[in-house]
User: Fold these one by one.
Assistant:
Number 1:
Amino acid sequence: MTAPVVVGRVIATERRKSSRNGNPAFMLTIQRPDGELRQHRTATDSMLAYAIENPEYRDTVHVFGLNNREQVITAQVACEARTGNHSDDLLVVYRGAALPVHVCGFHAMQL
């Protein structure tokens, strides 16, 4: 099973209503390397919501893991795009094209 992801930089965050537990939530605008803008909300009670406004998410391209509701649940720094078959590459399918992306410290997980 391939986990859904979006690759890009956070260019805007908008605070949303907190969860019943009082944890923050954000609507993120993520700019893909091709310039396309995508909007995704952080998942309910996600630890990522506490860090998402830090500059590293605006300054560095990340691979954002999504749950089945297309909410952001993980973020890993994308080191570089690679070609070839490397065991630590993540294959991202976008508009029918397979894009290999090397991710620092990424461990595949089933969502």
Number 2:
Amino acid sequence: MFLQVAGDGAFFGNVPWWVFPLAGIPLMLVMMVGMGLMMRMMMGMGGMMGMGSHGASHGPADAPRRPTPDQASEAEVASLRREVADLRRQGPLDIARERLARGEITKEEFDRIRGDLE
């Protein structure tokens, strides 16, 4: 449509329509390489934003790292290890009794488990 508006090729000369997409491919590649270089340069300057080992910092370098919410503290890990060790020492019926006492299972579920174990 644009070629027709331009007046039968008067604006573009006698260039066939398929030249324009072919010219666009190398230009797109040059643009993508340029963007990649720009991203690499910006990631290299990450220290200016407090992410690298050089540049401005937002706190002391030897500050302890805070655990993220998905990381457990040393005390939590030790507690879980003790609990797992206790569970391994107990039998399945003992575990079912504790779950019944805590209200995690009903009496009917406990009876079914006991029947399955016997």
Number 3:
Amino acid sequence: MSVSLIRTTQLIALLIFSKSLEHFVYAKNTRLQIMKQNDESTHNINAFVKTFDQEVDAFKFKGIKAIINHHSSHFKELLEFDDWTTAMKYLDDNKEIVFKFLLEDHGEK
């Protein structure tokens, strides 16, 4: 298996995770807006925010760990991240590879 294929796959997986987080944030903001419009108590709003943030943190942790754990010991050396922060830095540092992949014509019609 090619090293570039593994790295591209890592980057695409990280892109998918980061895009899903954007949707989580949108859902959170929408829910908060609805709660405020419905005059929910501060306690309920704070409880929602705390629970939501815990779920997002768990999603990020489990997602990165899944990517890491799906690398055999032979390919672990290709990992340049070990948590969400370093994964997002790796994605940002390699965004030109992702853009190139997304803009390529893969023969799909």
Number 4:
Amino acid sequence: MAASGWSALSFIAGGACALAGTAAYALCLAVNRRADAGRVLRAHLVAQAAKVAVAVTLVIAGLNSDWDFAAGPLVAGFIAAVLVYPFALLLVNTKTDRN
């Protein structure tokens, strides 16, 4: 595969690492449905730890794999996927503040 093909695949794989972390977060919260505020907070913290652990583990696995992922695009895809949500919140909050 051409170098640009590996770069694109690496970028997508980095985004998929972040998406898998988010899926782990959602799974943890789906399993730990609680009504008590303390238990909700604990479930959130456990889910956040699972999200970070899954995402970072997958990025490290991608960097150490034999698939010749390009490190720069892999990390850039991961960072882009992680930062989409905060930027979307910023845009939504900016639009609602004007109205």
